[in-house]
């Protein structure tokens, strides 16, 4: 990982922090480390709350009995904002994701490819769990970025308004919902205007990454909350910039993929060539 590099302040460049996979058996020490950092620099992150986590790969510690109370208190104090991160985080289908369908890749999904009524029931159950603990949100975060038209239809009918996802530089509307883009997974220098959401996972939170985050938080870059992003004025030029950025990301990915494929082929040749010579 490259250390975060400071760049000249761009008044049209803004960042959002989001943290995925929040649940009672997460890595608590890393969670507190991250929350303390955000509070120190007065940054309000968006936390993806799994209503009823059944994904054993995310269970690192014993369940914290004070979890729901703590999250509610943090929301009430204005330290965090929350969104619904799926239902149980259990993957049941394979689907091209909102980001990955641009690149021809597929991901496991908790929702996409399931019938509308099944998705509606799961999303509704998740929302009811959150509300039973006094937590209310109209923001959606799908596990592995995987949604389909039935997901969007269910979300809209259940009163959701926003999705934290999408490859663009400015918010855009689609399927009756507003998408706040999510493009990067660590603090990095951006040279264009727009809103960049940094997606963090506690199990990827190394000491080096924490240091990068700290350097970013104390830099001159403007870091806003998710709710602030939803209130930004939509301009005609944003649509053009969104299209241009998406095209750039697709082209960059395919170039990198070709380079990696070429390197892999060369490495394979170098390994097999000596064997053929010996024969």
Explain what the structure shows.
The chain is of the alpha/beta class and about 280 residues long. It has seven helices and eleven strands. It has helices at about 30-40, 65-75, 115-130, 150-155, 205-215, 225-230, 235-279; strands at about 15-20, 45-50, 80-85, 95, 105-110, 140, 160-165, 170-175, 175-180, 195-200, 220-225. Strands 1, 2, 3, 10 and 11 form a five-stranded parallel beta sheet that branches. The protein is globular and about 45 Å long. The mean pLDDT is about 85.
Brief account:
This protein has 279 residues and is of the alpha/beta class. It contains seven helices and eleven strands.
Provide the descriptors you would attach to this structure in a database record.
single chain; alpha/beta; five-stranded parallel sheet; four-stranded mixed sheet; about 280 residues
Oligomer: single chain
For the record, give the distance between the C-alpha atoms at the N and C termini, rounded to a whole number.
42 Å
Tally of helical runs? 7
- Name the overall outline: globular
In terms of structural class, how would the helical and strand content be classed? alpha/beta
* Uncertain spans: none
Q: Count of DSSP E strands? A: 11
Q: Report the β-strand fraction as a percent range.
A: 15-25%
Radius of gyration (Å) = 20 Å
Quick one: biggest sheet? 5 strands, parallel
Order of helices and strands: EHEHEEEHEHEEEEHEHH
What is the mean pLDDT? Answer: 84
| Share of helix, binned | 25-40%
List the helices and strands and how they pair.
Blueprint: E1 13-22, H1 28-40, E2 46-49, H2 67-77, E3 81-84, E4 93-95, E5 107-109, H3 116-132, E6 139-140, H4 149-157, E7 162-164, E8 172-174, E9 177-180, E10 194-201, H5 207-217, E11 222-223, H6 226-230, H7 236-278
Parallel strand pairs: 1-2, 1-10, 1-11, 2-3, 6-7, 7-9
Antiparallel strand pairs: 4-5, 8-9
Helix pairs in contact: 3-4
């Amino acid at each position: 990982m490259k250390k975060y590099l400071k760049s000249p302040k761009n008044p049209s460049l803004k960042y959002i922090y989001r943290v995925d996979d929040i649940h009672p058996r997460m890595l608590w020490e890393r969670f507190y480390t991250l929350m303390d950092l955000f509070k120190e620099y007065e940054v309000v992150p968006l936390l993806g709350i799994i209503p009823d986590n059944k994904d054993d790969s995310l269970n690192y510690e014993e369940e914290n009995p004070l979890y729901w109370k703590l999250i509610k208190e943090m929301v009430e104090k204005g330290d965090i904002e929350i969104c619904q991160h799926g239902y149980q985080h259990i993957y049941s289908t394979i689907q091209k994701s909102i980001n990955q369908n641009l690149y021809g890749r597929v991901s496991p999904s908790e929702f996409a490819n399931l019938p509308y009524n099944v998705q509606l029931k799961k999303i509704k159950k998740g929302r009811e769990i959150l509300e039973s603990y006094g937590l209310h949100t109209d923001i959606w975060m799908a596990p592995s970025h995987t949604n389909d038209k039935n997901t969007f239809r269910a979300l809209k009918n259940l009163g959701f308004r926003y999705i934290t996802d999408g490859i663009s530089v400015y918010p855009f509307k689609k399927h009756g919902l507003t998408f706040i883009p999510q493009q990067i997974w660590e603090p990095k220098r951006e040279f264009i205007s727009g809103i960049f959401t940094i997606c963090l996972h506690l199990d990827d939170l190394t000491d080096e990454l924490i240091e990068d985050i700290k350097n970013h938080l104390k830099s001159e870059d403007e870091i806003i909350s998710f709710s602030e992003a939803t209130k930004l004025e939509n301009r005609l030029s944003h649509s053009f910039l969104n299209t241009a950025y998406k095209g750039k990301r697709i082209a960059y990915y395919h170039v990198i993929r070709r380079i990696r494929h070429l390197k892999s082929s060369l490495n394979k040749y170098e390994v097999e060539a000596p064997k053929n010579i010996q024969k």
